[in-house]
Amino acid sequence: MTEPTGNNLWTILEAIARHRGAAFAVVLVITLGAAVVSLLLPSWYQAEAFLLPPKDVSASMDQLSKLSEVVSVTGGLNLPVMVTPSDVYARILRSKRVTDRIIEKFNLKARYGTSTWADTYAEYFSHAKFGVTEEGLVFIRVEDRDPQMAADMANAIIDELNTVNQEIVSGRARRNRQFIEARLAEVKAKLDSTRSDLETFQQTHRTVDFDAQTKLAIDQAADLKVSLARVELEISMDEQTLGKDNPELIEKMKRRDAIRGQLRQLESGGNDTSYFSLPVSSIPGLKGQYELLFSRVKVTESIYNMLLEQLEQARIQEEEQSPTISVLDRARAPEIRSRPRRTMIVLIAFAISLIAALLLAATLEYLDKLRVNRPDDYKRAQYVIGAFLGWIPGIGRRTDRT
């Protein structure tokens, strides 16, 4: 079984040796041609920058004081299971909002020699790549013939991402501020009304004292009302940005119902419609009315102060210009070109030339046999091959002899 294989191998080597001139010429021409082409190709340099994963601030806030932490464009988004905040940032980097600014800033239409936006986009994205590493880092890779230009573009993309992020976050803060301002006006009107009622009651009935037990019950009820107001405010804000089926919104609604249940347990006298359930059956009715008015004022004041604090935080967030992204590595001008990989080009061309030389030797060997067995077919084949490959040593001489 091994003898035919050995004979075939020697036959191939004999064919190559017989037509070594043509085979060598093919290898030399293809390899040298690839080397020359690789030297003529323009050098490209790739600059690279990395961003840390964005802080995923959830829209589910245990306290409204966390409003000041909503500094991420991904905050509050109900992302799919396999999508991370880093993926969102990578998509923003490919958005027209960022791309258009980079194209205009660096006049890329003129630099790329394109006349339409579509062609400019295609050329830009062939040189600018964005994605997420296995570790979750956002990478920005930009290549250009000028290494400094590549670095400048990569860093400008980072700056534009930060600008877009600030614009989005500022818009959210502005909507929150407007909502809180409207709610604050309502609470202020209610506070003025409850204070007026209490002052009228005090002036009419001169009631200013109550025992420690009643005060403790009122304080507990007031805390529940403040908690209820917080939850209701969060629900109102979240309903503007999240769907009604959002799990976080549903959880808040359950918390609101639980607080309402506790308040119902504190209601006085079964069907009594007063605010709080206080063990005041032994307290004169006049004093009970006073406590009711006083507690209303206290609850409203607590809500009002809370809204004032949140309004100030929303205003600060709206005007804040601090960086909203964390840069791990900014781009620097690369010292080594990224392409063309000249050595690889030459090696691949050399490998291809060896295969071509082998095929050429086999073809010439076939022609030799054809010349002996079928002279007419040989002349036709020789004419065709000589017309196209006569420049190769060995083939040209063969044609001349004919």
TrEMBL record:
Its main location: membrane. It is a multi-pass membrane protein. Residues 296-360 form the Tyrosine-protein kinase G-rich domain. Pfam families: GNVR, Wzz. Residues 9-105 form the Polysaccharide chain length determinant N-terminal domain. Residues 177-204 form a coiled coil. This is Polysaccharide chain length determinant N-terminal domain-containing protein.
